[in-house]
Amino acid sequence: MPIAVPQIFKYDYVPETKENLDWADLPTIDLSKFSNPEGKAELAQILIEAIRTKGFFYVTNFGIPQEKVDRQFYLGSKFYDLPLDEKSKYIPDLENGEYNGYRPAGRAALAGGVRDQTEVYNIPKFDGYHDRDHPDVIKENIGEIEEFARSLHTNVLDPLHALIAIALELPEDFFINLHKYENPSEDHLRYMMYRHFSGDQLKKLTEEGDGLYSLGHTDLGTLTLLFRQPVAALQIKDHKTNDWKWAKPLDGSLTVNTCDALSFLTGGYIKSTVHRVSVPPPDQNQYDRLGLLYFARPSNDLPLKTIKSPLLEREGFTQNEFEKGGHKVPTMGEFVKLKQTWQQKKRQNYREREDEVIVEGFKGKYHD
Ligand SMILES: O=C(O)CCC(=O)C(=O)O
Ligand SMILES: [Fe+2]
């Protein structure tokens, strides 16, 4: 009889940086206050202020045990341990904007003539419309992954969507209804691996280039959830000062940013937050950086027109870039397809495809 060997499922995080970085000062949404009416009203105000001034905020006390998060990092690390041949079986038609499955490193041209070393594995929403095959390590744990993804929807996205609706003076379930889990949408969970650069490559990237793993960009959905990431690399562009600040990992928290769809739906009242990923500080640049993210998006059939809200009307946010320019308003599904196609296309040169029209009224941009 084989002896049962206890399995160690903890993913080992790397030590935090000791460098004195210019950290962003971000507000926190403590969801333990969500269950009482005063707490909820207070959170709605903190959230809208955070979104309007910073575009990034932390969320704490969302009721998902740290062990479940650690397990996801562990599964992500196991996926990235697979040989390239095995992972490559799951590459979708990236050139035509497909993004669920595996994206290998080397598709983006970074500064200094260096190619990216970032791998992505996207697992779509379990809504019955995204049937995909996975390698064994994912397949064998798919029930747990589904439960985790659904818990993000219930424990994090639903309350945040309620708070945004309250702040915009809309019925509490307004955004929740646009994101119903059972409706087809392009939500996905992501394991992301930034392999570290060393030697010549690191030198070229940081000395000849701008030292960026990914250029300044906005995400295309509603909210992006990032699990605590001890390797400092994410930088946020401050809405007011335009300075780049580092996002600090905070224990037991999620870092959340607002994205394109939320900006379209609110006529630009909520901005899509610009962020980028830098080479980590010197005491961490020898580590690979594993990320765990969730990208939330409204239903595919939702037209991206400005919603009616008493607050938006009072403040004069009644048209987004499609409406102002007299362009056809795309649905969320159309917008995802077009922006993903722009994003996923392989680049031969740094900053290729900048200012390309993605949809009439919206161009592809790298933000400095
Ligand atoms: O890795 C990160 O911290 C951010 C990644 C990101 O911005 C993205 O994948 O859109
Ligand atoms: Fe992003």
TrEMBL record:
<dbReference type="Pfam" id="PF14226">
    <property type="entry name" value="DIOX_N"/>
</dbReference>
<feature type="domain" description="Isopenicillin N synthase-like Fe(2+) 2OG dioxygenase">
    <location>
        <begin position="216"/>
        <end position="284"/>
    </location>
</feature>
<protein>
    <recommendedName>
        <fullName>Flavonol synthase</fullName>
    </recommendedName>
</protein>
<dbReference type="InterPro" id="IPR026992">
    <property type="entry name" value="DIOX_N"/>
</dbReference>
<dbReference type="InterPro" id="IPR044861">
    <property type="entry name" value="IPNS-like_FE2OG_OXY"/>
</dbReference>
<dbReference type="InterPro" id="IPR050231">
    <property type="entry name" value="Iron_ascorbate_oxido_reductase"/>
</dbReference>
<feature type="domain" description="Non-haem dioxygenase N-terminal">
    <location>
        <begin position="26"/>
        <end position="126"/>
    </location>
</feature>
<dbReference type="InterPro" id="IPR027443">
    <property type="entry name" value="IPNS-like_sf"/>
</dbReference>
<dbReference type="Pfam" id="PF03171">
    <property type="entry name" value="2OG-FeII_Oxy"/>
</dbReference>
